[in-house]
Amino acid sequence: MTLKRMRFLKELFAFMGLGGRLRLEWISSAEAQKFVKVVSEFTEEIRALGPNPVGRYTCESGKKIGRRAACPTAPDPVLADTAPGPHTVPRAAAEGR
Amino acid sequence: MHEKVLNLLETGKVDIFLGYKMMAGHPLPHAFGRHNPVEVQEMILGPARYPLEKLAVEILAARPDLKIGILARDCNRRALNVLTVHQQVAPGQVQVLEVSCCPSPLQRHADCSSLEAKEFGAGKKEIGIDNNLTPDRLEAMEPTERFSRWMYEFQKCLKCYGCRDICPVCFCRECSLEHEDLIGTGDLPPEVPIFHLVRAVHMAGRCIDCGLCEDACPVDIPLRLLYRKVNELVADLFDYKTGLSLEQPPFSLLFDKTAQPAAAPHGA
To answer: How many domains, in total, are found in chain A?
Structure first.
C-alpha cells in the first residue's frame, strides 16, 4: 500500500512538473551504509534538479504566496545554497535586518 | 417526464422530487412535492446542472424519514454511487429518474452544460493551461513548462471554495481546506500549489468527473483535468473504478483497509 501510495504521489508531482523529488526506501537501523548511500545518492539527484521551483513563489517572510506580483521573487541562489529549505533562510535573513 | 414525476409522487415512491425550475430567469434546483401537483408542470429540462444528489443527501441528513427522487444524468448516478459506498445515503433512499445527457444520432440535443467546450483566450493558451486539454497532451510538455503553467493557473485562485461547495462528493463535515493548522481560513491568496494539490489528493477515488468544479470556478482553473489525472492514477495503481458500481468498498488512500462498519451492506 505504501508503495502504491508513493507511486501515486510521485506521478501526481510529475504531472505538476515536480517529478523526481520523492523517493521511498526501506532501511533498517542496522543498515547504516545503505542509509548513507541512499541519502548521498538522492542528495546528488536533487542537486542536479536544481532548487525547488515552488521556492520561487515564496516571500521573504517565509510565507508561501500565490501571486508573484504581490511579492518579488526570492533570488534563487539564496535558496539554492542553503540546505534546510526555502522557509527557514529567508525568514532568518529578514530577522537579521 | 412530468407524468413520470407526478406518478412517483402520487404513488408514494418518493416524497419530494428534486428537479429544475425557472426562478427569476434562472434554472435553479427545486423540490417538487405532492401537495402541489400543478407546480410539477413547471419543471424544466435543460443544460443546467447542479449536484442534486448532494442536495438530496443534505435534506436526508435533516429528515431521514423522507424518500427523495432526483433528476439524474450519468454524472449524478455516479456521484450517488460514490455517496452510497461512503454510506452517506442508504441504497434506494434516493430514486433516480434518468434524463438523457449524452448526444447520439437518435438524440439531437443533449442536456448538459459541459458538452460544449469553452473557448479560451490566447493568453491562457500561451502561458496557462487550456481546460480542454487531456492529461496526455499536457504530459507531452516539458516538466518545467508544465509546472509554470500549473502555477499560473493556481495563482489565479480566489479561494472562493466554489469547487468544494458544488462538488457532489465533498461531504466531509470537516474540510482540510478550512483547517486552521493545515491551510487556514482567510489568508489570500491561498498557499499554492498546496491548496489545490490537497484537494486533488482528496478527490482520489471520489471524483466522478462531472466537471461541476470547473463550471463553478470563476477563474477557469482546469480542475477537471487535474482530478482526471488523479483518478487515472487511482484506476491504474489501485484498480478502483470510481463511482461505477455499488459493489465496492469506499476508496481510501490513507488506510490499507477502508473504514467499514461491522455489518457492511456490500461485500468488501
So the answer is: 1
- Domain residues for the domain of A93 are 52-97
Torsion of CA B6, B32, B16, B109, to 10 degrees: 70
**CB A33 within 8 Å of CB A27:** no
- Which CA distances in Å does B134 have to A96, B224, B240? 48, 10, 20
Pick from B189, B193, B200: CB nearest A67: B189
Phi then psi for residue A12, to 5 deg, are -65, -45
B143 contacts on A by Cβ (under 8 Å)? 14, 17-19
Q: B233 to chain A: which residues are within 8 Å by CB?
A: 7-8, 11-12
**Looking at the domain assignment, is residue A97 inside a domain?**
yes
User: Does A69 reside within a domain?
Assistant: yes
Q: How wide is the angle at C-alpha A89 spanned by C-alphas A88 and A93, nearest 5°?
A: 120
Domains in chain B: boundaries = 2-98, 122-238
pTM above 0.80, yes or no: no
Query: What Cα–Cα distance (Å) separates residue A37 from each residue in A26, A31, A47, B28, B110?
Result: 13, 10, 15, 62, 59
Helix or strand (DSSP H, E) at B163? helix B162-166
Nearest-CB residue to A53 (from B147, B197, B238): B147
Per-residue pLDDT of chain B in tens (268 residues, 90 and over written 9): 888 888 888 888 888 999 999 999 888 999 998 888 888 888 888 778 899 999 999 999 898 888 999 988 888 888 898 998 888 888 888 888 888 776 555 555 556 666 666 778 787 778 888 888 888 888 888 888 888 888 888 888 888 899 999 999 998 888 888 887 777 677 677 777 888 999 999 998 889 888 889 888 999 899 988 998 998 898 888 888 888 888 888 887 776 554 444 444 443 3
Answer yes or no: is A59 within a domain.
yes
Residue B19's φ and ψ, nearest 5 degrees, are -140, -155
Give the DSSP H/E element, type plus range, for residue A15.
Answer: helix A2-16
Best of A2, A6, A10, A16 to substitute, by most chain B Cβ atoms within 10 angstroms, is: A16
- Residue A15, in any domain of the structure: no
Would an 8 Å CB–CB cutoff place A16 in contact with chain B?
yes
ipTM of the complex: 0.79
